[in-house]
Amino acid sequence: MKKLDIAVVGSGIGGSLIASLNSKKNLVLFERDKNLGGCASTFKRFGSYFNAGATTFVGYEQNHPIKEIFDEIDFKPDLLKSQVAIRTIQNKKVLDRTKDFDKFLEDINEVYPNKNNEIFWKTLKQIDEKFWNLKKLYFAKYSLKAYIKSAVFVAELLKEFKFDIFKSAKGFIASTLGDISHEYQNFIDAQLFITVQTTSKNIPLLSMALGLSYPFHDVYYVNNGMGHIFDGILKNVDTHNKEEVLKIIKKENEYLIKTNKDEYLSKNVILNSTVFDSSSLFEDEKIKKYYSSFKFNDQSAFVVYLKLDIKPELIHHYQIVLNKNIPNCISNSFFVSFSDVNDEVLSSKGLSITISTHTKANFWKALTTSEYENKKIETMNYIIEEFLNNFDNIGKDNIKTAFSATSTTFNSYINRFNCGGSAISIKNALSLPSCKTPFKGLYNVGDTVFAGQGWPGVALGVKVLNKELNEEF
Ligand SMILES: Cc1cc2nc3c(=O)[nH]c(=O)nc-3n(C[C@H](O)[C@H](O)[C@H](O)COP(=O)(O)OP(=O)(O)OC[C@H]3O[C@@H](n4cnc5c(N)ncnc54)[C@H](O)[C@@H]3O)c2cc1C
């Protein structure tokens, strides 16, 4: 039986980054799917390539974990800077989120005028800048040392920001901008939905600042598909795709790993499966109980994939904000990402488009087969119609391929019904899963553990995990 020092279960952002940092150790990365990258993978269907979920790449800059990790593994991604991070369209009103603060302020004052726009947006930007400059960003549990280091981080956070950043985001909007229009509120909430998975009603100021400030950073388009990045990250990693980990049995000082192809003994196991889905991998009652203690976050994605037969000049990312919720979804907006016209893989013969919005996983799970199919078509057609209403240079006839994915589809490919982390608040901070578990040699990584979702959030969690892991070697 093959003996390992580290078994990484899953090649999502978290699993791939931690594997790349430890590739010189005796490590194997297992991925059940054919494609690498999980929610950030790229797949081929009907002869064309599509980004499965993630399309924007943020955080490739100084003081950010992604840049630090990529530099450490000597990997330079093939990126293209998006001149506009995201273009929002609401009732035909267009607003560009640009990195240039003065330009953005000028634009927002025209579209959503408010005498305190400058102070509002400047405060958010300053909080975001300070956060990414904090030196001791850290969160782990289940050892005295980890608790002490986490306490040092919280103390640094409070010294820098005081308790104000844990006050309600909604309260900050009211005290700064006053009674804003329904449209302005929708604009703010739609952007928060894509970054922190909820609206200003449910989060503290810190989460709102981080969520709304990502367009003030450099935002990149990944050439040849988001999934292409994983080929680079994993170039030195022993990667076994199409090999699913089915059972992990705790032995005295190691774990027996049973896959659909083989068996391995590993001293350490890093799970990139979600904390909600990990319990079923184990037989040990204590480990099962630990993973079952995390309440399922019933948040997921509905995604529409389109292939056009034309290549109109468009920017990379748009957000369309509607006046009412999309059928069978929990949001009134959708995010549209176009492949770059010069992308030789995604844009061969026409643009590839990924459109995503938010839905509940349990809703789709509860449907009968025919209800499921009907509702899926209803949602897809509604989104396509609204998409066409907002892009005059694209006609229905230009759509050559159209299909969609629900939370159930995500589960069948990448083992997860839930997509999207929970925003950190005072209420949930202590119950947040950390990279360290109470079990020696067993670790978590990915967007259901600290620090949360997307490239920047998951990479931050990887940095913390890497410190923990290397204390053991
Ligand atoms: C529609 C959508 C759009 C998004 N857009 C963006 C964006 O534009 N920018 C951004 O930064 N983020 C975006 N995100 C968020 C981001 O994609 C995720 O937070 C991130 O990719 C999650 O990474 P992860 O490490 O948690 O791994 P996951 O993506 O969850 O991957 C886990 C991997 O583990 C594998 N696995 C699970 N169980 C097993 C097993 N037993 N054996 C073997 N393999 C297993 C799965 O197959 C999967 O490949 C988006 C997410 C979605 C759903």
UniProtKB/TrEMBL annotation:
It comes from the Bacteria. PANTHER family: PROLYCOPENE ISOMERASE, CHLOROPLASTIC, PTHR46313. This is NAD(P)-binding protein. It comes from Arcobacter roscoffensis.
